[in-house]
Amino acid sequence: MKTETENLSANQSLDIIRQMINQAQGNVRGSSFHFLLWGWVVALANLGMFTLIQLEYSKPYIVWLITIPAWLASMYYGFKHGQENRIVTHIDKISMWIWVSYGICIFTLVFFGSVIHWNVNPVILLMTVVPTFISGIVIRFKPLVLGGISFWFFAIVCFLVDPQYQYLVGALAVVTGYLIPGYLLRYKKD
């Protein structure tokens, strides 16, 4: 008895791959929610941090607590929409694990931020290049690819400016890297 894969022609295999990519494009397009949620949360947290530093508030980092409800909302949204009738492709799974590993790296960096004197913004921006750029490539969405490249540019700028101004650079980075592509993705006509 022959297996299913032995019966597929080269064209049939390519068609299956194309269908998987098209399905993944639809799945990621449908989740522009995450780019918009995290774009707004991180932009506002960066601007809040900068403002609190300028006001000489003793604990300006407190503003980052807004990421906790955002994380919960993101998890709830992902779980809720994962339960709906949609096909989960291998590409979806790879994309998901790229973002999960990114999140684990961010958590680790923040946890050990004191080791680098809390200068985490340039490193976070640099790390954000990879999942954003790859997501843009996977769904063949040029604004998201450019968003990934913009994170690289702003990471370099962030390394070059005074630490207090890194928060302004970080806010600008997420506007160009997440919010603009996120809105373009949400309103994209197929």
Describe the fold and architecture.
- The protein is an all-alpha fold.
- Helix 2 runs antiparallel to helix 3, helix 5 runs parallel beside helix 7 and helix 6 packs antiparallel against helix 7.
- It has one domain.
- It contains 7 helices and no strands.
- The model has no long low-confidence stretch (mean pLDDT 87).
Domain unit count: 1
Mean pLDDT: 87
Low-pLDDT runs of 5+ residues are none
Number of strands: 0
Distance between the termini: 41 Å
Rg over CA atoms, rounded to whole Å, is 19 Å
Structural class: mainly alpha
Major sheet, described briefly?
none
Secondary-structure element string: HHHHHHH
Residue fraction in strands: under 5%
Compute the number of helices.
7
Backbone shape: elongated
Helicity, as a percent range: over 70%
Task: Give me some keywords for this one.
single chain; 190 residues; mainly alpha; 7 helices; elongated
Task: Describe the secondary structure blueprint for this structure.
Layout: H1 10-30, H2 32-54, H3 67-83, H4 90-111, H5 121-138, H6 142-160, H7 166-186
Helix pairs in contact: 2-3, 2-7, 4-5, 5-6, 5-7, 6-7
Give a quick rundown of the structure.
The chain has helices at residues 10-30, 32-54, 67-83, 90-111, 121-138, 142-160, 166-186. With 190 residues, the protein is an all-alpha fold. Helix 2 (32-54) runs antiparallel to helix 3 and helix 6 (142-160) packs antiparallel against helix 7.
